[in-house]
């Protein structure tokens, strides 16, 4: 079972990496052909929560594959926490995309369809199934959720602060936000709408994080956590 999941993790990591590279290369080529700002695009590209989460999933799946293929012990605690965070982010990516962004038309000729599905559907689904079924997972303390929430908070602050000064790499127009529901200029009620969506996404992240931690504790209830009664 460990070998099977190790190989599967490696294959999915390569698939996700290929999807990221395919979309990145396609976009860079099109922007360069139209005389756009390639450097600005690179920064914008890696400002998407989806891209950052998928890059992190490639790293976690790669490390996880090595751990499963080279050792018999459970996951080290540092990796368990990192893996839980990435599973949460990928689950959030899948939920937010399919609830809020699925029906928004994508620019024809600039979006790689198979890459889009891998990053928003296939990868999130696999990360969740891997968390549920793969060996090596250890129980996590409930307070791990607050560590999981740290990165999305930083990302939201970075996005809102950078947005008014960022520009579309093709048109050069400001502001630029990675997702339309974060743009106060195009949202129905400005910053009020943006605040609503941020709270909604924060709720999804916290719920997903609690779910991820709960699974680790519920399915390994035979493993007591030292001092858990006082630190939970």
Query: How many domains, in number, for the residues?
Result: 1
Q: Indicate the proportion of strand residues.
A: under 5%
Give the strand tally: 0
Radius of gyration: 19 Å
Residue stretches low in confidence (pLDDT < 50, at least 5 long) are 221-232
Q: Structural class, from secondary structure content?
A: mainly alpha
Mean pLDDT: 91
Biggest sheet layout? none
Shape: globular
Straight-line distance between termini:
32 Å
Order of helices and strands: HHHHHHHH
| Number of helical stretches of at least 4 residues | 8
The share of residues in helices is 55-70%
For the structure shown, list the relevant keywords:
mainly alpha, globular, 232 residues
Write the layout of secondary structure elements.
Blueprint (H helix, E strand, L loop, with lengths): L1 H32 L4 H8 L3 H22 L6 H25 L11 H21 L10 H19 L28 H28 L9 H4 L1
Helix pairs in contact: 1-2, 1-3, 1-5, 3-4, 3-5, 4-5, 4-6, 4-7, 6-7
Question: How does this structure look, described?
Answer:
The protein has about 230 residues and is mainly alpha-helical. It has one domain (about 1-230). The chain contains eight helices and no strands. The two termini are about 30 Å apart. The relative contact order is 0.14.
Concise synopsis of the structure shown:
This protein is an all-alpha fold. The protein has helices at residues 2-33, 38-45, 49-70, 77-101, 113-133, 144-162, 191-218, 228-231.
């Amino acid at each position: 079972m460990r070998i099977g999941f190790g190989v599967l993790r490696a294959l999915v990591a390569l698939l996700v990496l290929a999807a990221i590279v395919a979309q990145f290369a396609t976009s860079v080529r099109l922007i360069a052909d139209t005389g756009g700002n390639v450097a600005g695009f690179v920064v914008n590209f890696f400002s998407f929560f989806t891209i950052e989460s998928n890059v992190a999933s490639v790293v976690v799946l790669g490390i996880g594959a090595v751990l499963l293929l080279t050792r018999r012990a459970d996951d080290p605690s540092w990796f368990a926490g990192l893996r839980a965070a990435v599973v949460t982010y990928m689950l959030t990516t899948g939920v937010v995309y399919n609830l809020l962004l699925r029906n928004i038309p994508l620019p024809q000729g600039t979006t790689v369809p198979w890459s889009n599905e891998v990053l928003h559907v296939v990868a999130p689904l696999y990360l969740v199934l891997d968390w549920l079924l793969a060996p090596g997972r250890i129980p996590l303390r409930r307070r791990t959720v607050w560590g999981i929430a740290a990165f999305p908070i930083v990302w939201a602050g970075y996005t809102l602060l950078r947005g008014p000064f960022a520009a579309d790499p093709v048109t050069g127009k400001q502001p630029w936000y990675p997702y339309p529901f974060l743009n106060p200029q195009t949202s129905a009620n400005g910053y009020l709408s943006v605040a609503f969506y941020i709270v909604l996404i924060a709720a999804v992240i916290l719920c997903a994080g609690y779910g991820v931690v709960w699974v680790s504790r519920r399915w390994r209830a035979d493993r007591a956590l030292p001092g858990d009664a006082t630190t939970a």
